[in-house]
Structure formats: structure tokens, C-alpha cells
Amino acid sequence: MNWFFITLGYSGLAPKAPGTVGSIVALFLGMWILIAFDAQTLFLASLLVTVIAIKAIDKYEKISGIHDDKRIVIDELAGMWFALSVAPAITINFNALGMWENGFLIQSLLSFLLFRYFDITKPSIIGRIDRETKGGLGVVGDDVIAGFVAGILSALLWQGIVTLQGV
């Protein structure tokens, strides 16, 4: 059992809000990947982490008998990285981080806030996956969908902001 992996570097062991702590760790790691590499790399890393996480969580649940242990936050990483690979989904260098025009920081923050909102409230299909799908697929699946929705909504909101500024 790789406890370091499924707790995302032990961030899931935070006494308060382990999901939020894990999401913050995932946000900064994802932003670093976007800066150092690109959105495609982050997307592919998200897919890889998702597959490995499902298998690791299945193994953990079989051994422990605990479904969706709150200390497991690798699912937050998968969701956050999917959100970031959709929006901002731009290649940026470190020097351009603070520039408003590229929207990198705003979209990253929006992606984080929207992901946490969807992950906590679990509306619509996100909640259905969480309630009805067993094992690692259920634990990770709702976060992946929440990440995609958060990323798309973040990109749309940023486009709305840009459009309003142009008026």
C-alpha cells in the first residue's frame, strides 16, 4: 500500500479539511507542470494518476474495508489537474505569471474554487457517481467529472470577463 501516494504526500492527513489541503497541493503542482511543460502533459499526467489511483484505492478499500476514506486525497489531485488542463490550458513562463492579460492566475484560482464547490456539493451526475459507483472508480470518478466541469466553467467565465473588458 502506497500511503504516500493515496494521501498525496501525506496532505490527506491534515486534521482539518484534508480535501481542501490536498486540492491546494494539487493546484500548485498542476500550475508548476503547466509552467514547466504544457497543458497536454498535465492532461496526460491526470489520466495516468487517475488510472493508478483507482487501482490503489481499490486495493486500500479491500484491505481496510473503508470506502472513500477522507484521508485519501489523490482523487483531488486527479480532479484539480483535469480542471487545470482544461482552463487555463495555456503554456506560460514564470515571468508572465502576474500578467492579467493571459488569465493564468485568475483561471487557476477559478478552477480551484469551482472544483472545490462541485466536489463538496456534488450536484447532478457528480453526486450520482459518488453515491452509486463503488470502489476506486467511484472515489475518483466524481472528482474527475467535477474537475472537467470546473475547468470548462472557469474558461467560460474568463472568456466572459475578457469580452466584457472589450466592450
**Strand-residue fraction?**
under 5%
DSSP summary, beta strand count? 0
How many individual helices? Answer: 7
What is the chain-wise order of helices and strands? HHHHHHH
Q: Helix coverage percent of residues?
A: over 70%
End-to-end Cα distance: 55 Å
| Shape designation | globular
Count of separate structural domains? 1
Mean pLDDT: 91
Poorly predicted segments: none
Largest sheet: none
- The gyration radius over C-alpha positions equals 16 Å
Please name the defining characteristics of this protein:
167 residues, mainly alpha, 0% strand
Explain what you see.
The chain is mostly helical and 167 residues long. It has one domain (16-166). 72% of the residues lie in helices and 0% in strands. The chain is built from 7 helices and no strands. It has helices spanning 3-6, 18-36, 39-64, 74-86, 104-121, 124-132, 135-166. Helix 4 (74-86) packs parallel to helix 7 (135-166). The longest helix is centred in the C-terminal third of the chain and has 32 residues, at 135-166. The radius of gyration is 16 Å and the shape is globular. The relative contact order is 0.16.
